[in-house]
Amino acid sequence: MPLLDIRKDGDPVLRVKTKPVKNLNASTRNLIEDMVDTMRSARGVGLAAPQVGVSKRIIVIETDEALYEFVNPEITSEDGSETAIEGCLSVPGVVGEVERAAKVRVKGLDRDGRTVWVDSEGLLARVLQHEIDHLEGLLFTDKASATYETRPDPELASARRLRVVFMGTPDFAVPSLIAVLRDAHEILAVVTRPDRPRGRGLELSPSPVKQSAVKHRFPVVQPSTCRSPQFVEWLRDVKPDVIVVVAFGQILPREVLEIPSLGCINVHASLLPKYRGAAPINWALIRGERVTGVTTMYMSERLDAGDVILQKEVAVSPDDNAGTLHDKLKHEGADLLTVTLRLLGAGKAPRAPQDESQATFAPSLTSKDEVIDWNRPAGDIRNHVRGMSPWPGAHTVKDGRKIKVLAATVLDSAGTEIHHLLRRQPEGAGRAGLVLAADETNGLVVQAGEGLVRLDEVQPEGGRRMPAADYLRGARLAPGDVLGR
User: Fold this and answer.
1) What number is the average pLDDT over the span 35-59?
2) Which of 4, 48, 387, 450 has its CA 20 to 30 A from that of 301?
3) Is 332 one of the catalytic residues?
4) CB count, 10 Å around CB of 333?
5) pLDDT for 308
6) 88 tagged catalytic
7) Coil, helix or strand for 309?
C-alpha cells in the first residue's frame, strides 16, 4: 500500500469540517488501508482522513489491543474527565496538556458498512476524541491548557523500516509482535501454529498470537509444518528482510533460515547459553536462579545455539513464580527486540558466538517433573513449586489422589513457632513428607529432607485453587499423615 503525505499544521485542509461518507465503496476501503499503513509507518496511534488531505469522516486508531476503523464516527455518550499529555502527527515537535472525557462511547460504520459501537476508556478514549476533533477541523493545540516543544529522536528518524515475517504462538510472543508493529516495521504476515481443540467441547481455539494478529488485521499463516515445500515457497515469494521468531514451537529448517536477507532473529527467555530449550523460565526457578534474562540471537539449525546479538539481565524476585517471571520476561524480550531490529536495520547488530562450555538445558516439562520429592531440602522444594506455578503445578499425593501445590514457604527452623511444632512431633518424625501441622493456627506444615515447608496454596484433584487454610477445613489431613504416597 502507498504511504500518504501527512499534512502539517497550517494546511487549510486541517481546519475544514469534514463531510459524512455517503457511499462506502472500494475506493473508501483502499483509503482506509492506506491510512492504516501510513499511521503505522509514522509510529502513530491514530490518524484522521483530513491529516492525509481527504475531507471525509474517517479515522483509524491502533492501540496495543486492536486496530479500530471508523467511518462517520460520532460520540454518543461520555463520562468523567481527565487531563493528559497529547501529541499529533500533524503538529510535530509539540505536545500539550489536554482535558478530555475519561470514558466515551462511539458509534460508526466499519469498512464493510456495518454499524459498530465501542465503549472506551484510557488511551483509546483519548485517541478517539482526538481523532474525531480532526473531523471537526480542530487540533489538540486548540484545547491544550499548556504546550511544550519536544526534540525528535534521531535514532527513530534514521531507523530503517524492515519487511518482517513474525512467527510465534503463545502469550509470551504477543508483546514482541506489538513491539514490531509499534516500531513501524512492515509486518508482511504472522505465522503461528494451527488452531487446536481446547476445553470440554474440544472446540478449535486460535493461539494468542493469532488472536492479536486478527485484531490488528495482519495476514495469518498456519502451516502444519514449516518444512512443507508450499510454506517455504510462500516465504520466498514474500521476500522478508528478517524473520522474527518468538516461542513459535517448531525448529526452522535451513531452507527457511536462508530466506531473509538479514537472517532469522529469535527472542529467548534466558541468558544464553544457559537454559537452552523449551522451558527456560521454569527451570531457572526450579534451580534457584537469582538472575535470569532475555537474549536476542541469530538462529541456526541447532536449538538455541545461534550467535548472540543482545542480552538483558532480569532479577528474579524471591516471590516470583513461573507466571510472574514469564510476564516480566515477555515485556523485557519485546523491548530488547525493538533495539535489536533497529541495530539490524542500521547494519550495526553485534554477533557473538555462544560459549558451548557454559551451555545448560531446559527441556520440556514432563509429568515426572511435576512430582514433589519430599526428600529434597525445603528450599529446593519451594523452588520446585515456584517453577511449576501456576502451570503445570507441582503435586504430591495423599491416599492416591493428587494435590497440586501452587505456593509454599520455607519455615525458619530457628523461629519460636517451629520450636513448639518440633517439640510435639508425631510418631515417625523426621520422615520426609510427614505432616507436622494441619490446622488454622500453624497452617499445613510438611517435613522435607532438610527443613520444613508450609504449603500456602493448593488445588486438590478435581477441585479449585485455594488457600491451604480453606483446604484444611474440609480435608481429611492430620499430623502424622505422610504425603507422597
Assistant:
1) 97
2) 387
3) no
4) 28
5) 98
6) yes
7) strand
Only one residue has cell 520450636, namely 419
Q: Which helix (H) or strand (E) holds 232?
A: helix 229-238
What tens digit of pLDDT does each residue of 204-229 get?
999 999 999 999 999 999 999 999 99
pLDDT category at 413 given cuts 50, 70, 90 is: low
Give the active site residue among 108, 129, 130, 345: 130
**Rounded mean pLDDT of 319-330?**
98
Rg (CA), the chain: 28
Nearest partner of 384 among 375, 373, 368, judged by Cα: 373
> Has 89 been annotated as catalytic?
yes
In this prediction, residue 418 carries a pLDDT of 57
Q: Is 216 assigned a catalytic role? A: no
User: Does the pLDDT of residue 249 top 80, yes or no?
Assistant: yes
Note if 51 is an active site residue.
yes
Question: Where residue 198 falls among pLDDT bands split at 50, 70, 90?
Answer: confident
| Among 399, 407, 365, 403, residue whose Cα is nearest residue 382 | 407
Helix extents (H) in 389-427: 416-423
Phi, psi (deg, nearest 5) at residue 246: -135, 105
User: Which one of the listed residues 96, 109, 124, 134 is annotated catalytic?
Assistant: 134
CA distance 260 to 240: 5
Residues β-bridged to residue 118: 106
- pLDDT for 202: 82
Task: Tell me which of 89, 188, 252, 411 is the catalytic residue.
Answer: 89
**Residues contacting 230, CB < 8 A, separation 6+:** 223
